[in-house]
Write a structure and sequence with these properties.
The protein contains eleven helices and 27 strands. With about 600 residues, it is of the alpha+beta class. The radius of gyration is 32 Å and the shape is elongated.
């Protein structure tokens, strides 16, 4: 006896009900085509057979047979949902969905050279929320959220799944089919859930008898179906240039997998279209696709730079085994237009260019850099750190030992980039901070997590550069060798004048002479924990003489930002002797940030 098929929305049983906006799909509504491309291709790569490149095909198909019949069966439920909606936006969207039924237009995303969906993978994809089951430790998805991206491009909020796989126990070729629709809770006498399924109605089961699967959804063009998975997106929202958007995001995120011959993508052109140079993306066409695609947002252009770096030999290439991560590769290109970012790749996929502690690069020339881990164990650690959007690594997800290893990896990247791209600066003096280095703010901290346990230790002396002032007229603390206005922001005044302001007694004046740095060594800046905004500056003069002014500034990407000094003890000018260790206590107008290196300038007038 054949099992009865159709749509079924289970009763709520007094439980939670679903409204018009579904959180899991709303996440992807801002960038629907990009999310569709990333998530579907990632799922296919996760199921690769390892016998060659995975092929993913995006194809728009119209149906006038079984494909439209299963949608017409959904229409009564959509009518009930329209009656539930109180807001005009939701009502309009569901009326639009009804019109989509008669169009019966699907986007089919089909992969080849994959193993299909094993039962555990099928359940995680179709029936479970917030869970993911992958075949290997380096598989892309890990949160079970990305599977909802396909619903964001369906005007019917309806998708059908078909998969052909080899059963691990019997080694028989099997097929599964099921539809899923995300609507709203509905019903008067009895309430029904907003999520329903097409298949065997008993317990909302998938269809596993080949004869019962609607022929339209089976891939049998070449006789027996090939292993793999197809996702049929009903009522596909085909806005203008949807092919372009899908291609753009695929090449921007997966060009490395394409270059390594792990992936090829076919985006089928419109019917009777003669333009086919955009739609086949593989190793042979990658260069052409980069040139064909136009990208106002810079996504493809930026990816092209990474591609050139990763495939060329002109840039700096560093390969080294890192504890816990195995063999790692860092490539660096120093150039005037570099954006000072490090592109992180994992298993052929771009993850992020804004990794914590790799965002700020004071004292470093412009550069581009790429990083990839070449060891499966290292990629497993990286995968475990990914956030649900798969666009950043969060070390808090690691255990303490793995966190230390990741911090060492980040420190290794910073060190190598500084060695290659470190800016040559005309310095007056340079001093090493040794025994008190632990009291200094970490100059590599870039505004990420304040979790101290995740910060790499300062294992070597830190260098502070004494930068010459860029131009006269800045506010200095002490007797100004340049024009200064009164008040505390001008600093403590010199030896003359009776003005009430602490800075510039006697008003504005100009002192003859040239401004230059007073030569000092061994500068150390230590915070006084007992007194807010108070710090002690330790230094050793390299000349005998008089220090008239003191400047405190914060190193940044584009220069130094001055911090006002409100008080200084002992007061300036200060008589110093060459080689004699000195210290002054200062009070600043605001707390010094802990995410930049402090630069202290001692000024003298001659």
């Amino acid at each position: 006896m054949s099992k009865k098929q159709g749509w079924k929305f289970p009763p709520t049983g007094g439980g939670e009900e679903q409204g018009y906006r579904h959180a899991a799909t709303e996440i992807y509504s801002g960038e629907p085509y990009g999310s569709l491309a990333r998530e579907t291709v990632q799922n296919s790569l996760d199921a690769a057979t390892k016998d060659g490149a995975v092929t993913v095909e995006f194809k728009l198909i119209e149906s006038r047979d079984k494909g439209i019949e299963v949608l017409r069966e959904l229409e009564p439920t959509i009518n009930l949902c329209i009656g539930e909606l109180k807001d005009k936006e939701g009502e309009s969207e569901f009326k639009k969905a009804k019109r989509e039924i008669e169009k019966s237009e699907y986007l089919c995303v089909r992969d080849f050279n994959t193993i299909g969906l094993q039962p555990a993978n099928w359940d995680a994809l179709v029936k479970k929320q917030g869970t993911s089951h992958k075949e290997n430790d380096t598989a892309g998805g890990s949160f079970g959220i990305g599977k909802n991206a396909i619903f964001a491009v369906s005007n019917l909020r309806t998708v059908f799944y078909w998969s052909c796989y080899k059963d691990e126990e019997s080694q028989k070729i099997c097929e599964r089919f099921q539809g899923k629709s995300i609507l709203v809770s509905h019903g008067k006498e009895e309430r029904y859930q907003g999520i329903g399924y097409y298949g065997y109605k008993n317990n909302c089961q998938f269809v596993d008898t080949m004869a019962d699967i609607p022929p339209f959804f089976r891939d049998t063009n070449s006789g027996e179906p090939k292993l793999g998975t197809a996702v049929w997106i009903a009522g596909f929202d085909k806005k203008e240039k949807w092919r372009h958007e899908i291609a753009k995001n695929i090449i921007a995120n997966y060009f490395l997998a394409i270059h390594d011959k792990d992936l090829e993508v076919l985006i089928a052109p419109e019917k009777d279209s003669k333009k086919d140079n955009l739609y086949l993306i593989d190793t042979s066409t990658l260069s052409e696709i980069f040139n064909v695609l136009k990208d106002d947002g810079g996504l493809v252009d930026r990816a092209k730079i990474d591609w050139e770096i990763l495939t060329g030999i002109k840039d700096e290439i560093i390969e080294e085994k890192i504890d816990g991560f195995g063999m790692c590769e860092l490539r660096i290109r120093v150039c005037e237009d570099g954006d000072k970012t490090v592109s992180f790749f994992r298993s052929g996929m771009l993850i992020t260019r804004g990794q914590e502690k790799l965002r700020r690069w004071p004292g470093v020339d412009s550069f581009y850099a790429t990083f990839r881990c070449c060891d499966p164990k290292g990629n497993k650690i990286l995968r475990s750190m990914e956030n649900p959007a798969h666009n950043e690594f969060h070390p808090k997800r690691l255990d303490s030992e793995e966190k230390k290893q990741f911090n060492k990896l980040i420190e290794w990247i910073r060190t190598k980039i500084k060695e290659i791209a470190g800016r040559e600066i005309e310095l007056s003096k340079k001093s090493n901070i040794t025994d008190l280095s632990k009291y200094f703010p970490d100059p590599d901290y870039d505004g990420g997590s304040p979790d101290e346990s995740s910060d790499p230790p300062l294992e070597s002396p830190q260098e502070i550069y004494l930068m010459p002032p860029k131009k006269p007229g800045r506010r200095l603390y002490g007797s100004e060798p340049t024009e200064v206005s009164g008040g505390k922001n001008g600093g403590v005044g010199g030896n003359s004048g009776k003005g009430k302001g602490r800075g510039g007694k006697g008003g504005t004046k100009r002192v003859p002479g040239k401004v230059h740095l007073y030569p000092v060594n061994n500068i150390r800046l230590v915070s006084k924990e007992s007194d807010k905004n108070c710090y002690i500056v330790y230094f050793t003069p390299d000349e005998t003489g008089r220090i008239r002014s003191l400047r405190l500034s914060i190193a940044g990407d584009t220069g130094q930002t001055q911090i006002d000094i409100e008080d200084c003890s002992p007061s300036l000018p200060l008589e110093v002797e060459k080689g004699t260790h000195c210290s002054v206590e200062i009070k600043t107008s605001e707390p010094l940030p802990t995410n930049s290196a402090q630069i202290v300038e001692f000024i003298n007038a001659i």
